[in-house]
């Protein structure tokens, strides 16, 4: 650590919607919805009166329909030029896309989708249990693609909960979705065109859980201060970071070259998300679901989508749901099927 600036904290800001991010990340949002029992048609067993259906983000009664009309979620919508990393902590998500692929995943699974040259997909939140509540909790993270990869072929990868490496240490549990924790814990292989697949990117996505009284030292990033990292303190109270008491529901930017002691000094479990990576350092031109490098490329993207629909939509409706069976699976465009972490 630089002796002239020994403090590991660069800055702290409150968590809003979405959460603040640093290059190479574009966007991070946390969804935590206390959905009621299902109605037998995968929607909520509750009145939808008073909600702005199709644009329901208000959080009435502790849950949202988002862009869904009868089932919560995000019906068919396009993307180009970046990646979505969807980390589902509770509940289920039903994926369908313009390549003809489908998936149902959740309860610790992560889907890593390279949108590349263009894809249309739906992310629906089916309420499968008709007798009890259907809680849903997830992060969706947008990771930029470098210019050389923005027109790569679309590709999705499933990281099943059973496969994701975990670091355990005296009341501390870290799920290593990407990157490396010390010498023993290495995340799974990211998609081939991802910035995360480049060794020099020093990219990491971790979720951390500290029991009361637990302590752990976040190691310095391999890239030192060329790596930027942000720690999101989203659940619990009593975090002490490098000896400083930190208020909850904040994003903490940390120096990449600092090893940072973390202590849970409270009586609640503390949960954090860490996003880390070397910046791509290229211009960003973004409009809604499209992220390119120039305004001209954005105009071309809109023209391409109007002309091709990024392959069209092969499903009978814009919000497909994959039946009542809660089993987790992925069916890829080439017909390959995976189930709960094991290929069929």
UniProtKB/TrEMBL annotation:
Domain of life, source organism: Bacteria
> Which residues does the UniProt record annotate as the domain Pirin N-terminal?
68-143
Instruction: Give start and end of each Pirin C-terminal domain.
Output: 206-311
Membrane-traversing stretches: none
Pfam families, sorted: Pirin, Pirin_C
Family indicated by similarity:
Belongs to the pirin family.
Report the protein name in the record. Answer: Pirin family protein
Q: Which organism is it from?
A: Roseateles agri
């Amino acid at each position: 650590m630089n002796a002239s600036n020994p403090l590991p904290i660069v800055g702290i800001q409150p968590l809003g919607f979405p959460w603040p991010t640093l290059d190479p990340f574009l966007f991070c949002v946390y969804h935590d919805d206390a959905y009621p029992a299902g109605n037998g048609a995968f929607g909520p067993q509750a009145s939808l009166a008073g909600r702005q259906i199709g644009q329901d983000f208000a959080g009435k009664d502790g849950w949202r329909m988002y862009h869904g009309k009868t089932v919560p979620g995000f019906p068919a919508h396009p993307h180009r030029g970046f990646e979505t990393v969807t980390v589902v902590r509770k509940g289920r998500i039903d994926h369908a896309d313009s390549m003809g692929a489908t998936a149902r995943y959740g309860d610790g699974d992560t889907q890593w989708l390279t949108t590349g040259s263009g894809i249309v997909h739906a992310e629906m939140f089916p309420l499968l249990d008709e007798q009890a509540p259907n809680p849903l909790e997830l992060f969706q993270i947008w990771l930029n693609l470098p210019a050389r990869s923005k027109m790569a072929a679309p590709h999705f990868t499933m990281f099943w909960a059973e496969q994701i490496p975990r670091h355990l240490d005296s009341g501390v549990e870290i799920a290593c979705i990407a990157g490396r924790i010390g010498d023993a814990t290495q995340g799974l292989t990211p998609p081939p065109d991802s910035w995360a697949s480049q060794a020099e990117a020093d990219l990491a996505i971790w979720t951390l859980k500290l029991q009361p009284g637990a302590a752990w030292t976040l190691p310095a990033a391999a890239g030192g201060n060329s790596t930027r990292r942000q720690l999101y303190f989203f659940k619990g109270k009593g975090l002490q970071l490098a000896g400083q008491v930190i208020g909850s529901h904040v994003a903490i930017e940390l120096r990449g070259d600092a090893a940072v002691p973390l202590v849970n000094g409270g009586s609640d479990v503390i949960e954090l998300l860490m996003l880390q990576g070397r910046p791509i350092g290229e211009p960003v031109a973004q409009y809604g679901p499209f992220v390119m490098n120039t305004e001209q490329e954005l105009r071309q993207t809109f023209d391409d989508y109007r002309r091709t629909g990024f392959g069209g939509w092969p499903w009978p409706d814009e919000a497909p749901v994959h039946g009542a069976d809660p089993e987790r699976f992925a069916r890829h465009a080439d017909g390959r099927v995976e189930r709960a972490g094991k290929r069929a």
